[in-house]
Amino acid sequence: MMPIFKKILNFYIESSLHVALAVYALIRITFLKLNIAYDESVAYFGFFGTIVGYNFIKYDELARVKKVVLTPTFKAIIGLSFIAGLATFYYFLELQTKTKWIGFIALFITIIYTLPFFPRKQNMRNWSGVKIYLVAISWVIVTVVLPVFDSNYAFDIVVLLKCLQRFIFVFVLLLIFEIIDLQFDSKKLQTIPQRIGIKQTKYLAYLLLVVFIAMDFLKPHISQIHLTTTISIAILIAVFTFFANAKRNKYYTSFWVESIPLFWLLLLLVL
Predict the structure, then answer these.
(1) Around Cβ 87, how many Cβ atoms within 10 Å?
(2) What distance in Å separates the CA atoms of residue 114 and residue 157, rounded to the nearest whole number?
(3) Contacts of 93 by beta carbon, 8 Å cutoff, 6+ apart
(4) Which parts of 15-94 fold into alpha helices (H)?
(5) What is the extent of the structural domain holding 178?
(6) Phi, psi dihedrals of residue 161, rounded to the nearest 5°
(7) Which of 90, 106, 135, 172 is deepest in the core (most CB within 10 A)?
(8) Which residues contact 212 (CB under 8 A, 6 or more apart)?
């Protein structure tokens, strides 16, 4: 029974379904935080687009350069990505014209992140020190800017703070990933833990989480529920950061850390 469950869990993670749910949760959180009516097209465009984008990023080089053997799991992921691609296109057509441009920007970032954009240069994923910022920005675009633009919500100081807060949220989660991946990452990547060490990286994460909470107090109106959930999620991230080390297995980040947006959404819905 356990081997079957593990295979299902691995496929769920490797096919990017879990990270897509995290993106979907963050889009829903944006709707709730800004009191915007739920828009199915935006939420599902983010969900299915994440499956396509992440699988393209993860498996492009394997299929295009390394010519790996197509295992049943790999074929299933390709099939799922194809279906997700059709769904992404359908929901893309449902978006407003100005929102479509935001979608194009997200697509452009995915392409330059994955494919070599300049002659004799590696893709931006392998540029030293760039990866973490590029990923955080793309998540802000999809999970905050996209729903705001499509709902015709005014891009005011609250939205700006929300973008900065979301950037910090994703950035700190990525710091945990970089700590865990320290044993695998090439030193050429110059990740933050490689440059300043694990201990200093954790201190940086704790400092950013304080800023993450403080941003709620900068908003014109502070909701007690939203403040409570912000503090709770910051504490949860701090705990995961504290116990992060290079010896943790892949489930620590790929499942548990990526589940934090789902916990956040659940907490908001319950409260």
Answers:
(1) 17
(2) 33
(3) none
(4) 17-33, 40-64, 72-94
(5) 2-270
(6) -65, -40
(7) 172
(8) 165, 168, 169, 172, 230, 234
pLDDT of residue 119: 47
**What is the enclosing helix (H) or strand (E) of 172?**
helix 157-180
Whole-angstrom distance, CA of residue 160 vs CA of residue 167: 11
Residues 6+ positions from 247 with CB-CB distance below 8 Å: 183
Token digits of residue 245? 């080390």
pLDDT tens by residue, 212-247: 999 988 877 778 888 999 999 999 999 999 999 988
Distance between CA 7 and CA 102 in Å, rounded?
36
The C-alpha torsion from 40 through 43 and 47 to 49, rounded to 10°, is 90
When divided into structural domains, the chain yields a total of: 1
- Answer yes or no: is pLDDT of 159 > 80: yes
Task: Give the residue from 27, 71, 72 showing the smallest Cα distance to 49.
Answer: 27
Instruction: Using alpha carbons, select from 215, 109, 93 the residue that is nearest to residue 160.
Output: 215
Spell out a b/e string for 67-84, using b for 16 or more CB atoms within 10 Å of the CB, else e. Answer: eeeeeeeeeebeebbeeb
Residue 269's contacts (CB-CB under 8 Å, 6 or more residues apart) are 32
138 and 110 Cβ atoms separated by less than 8 Å: yes
Q: Which of 176, 85, 18 is nearest to 10 (CA)?
A: 18
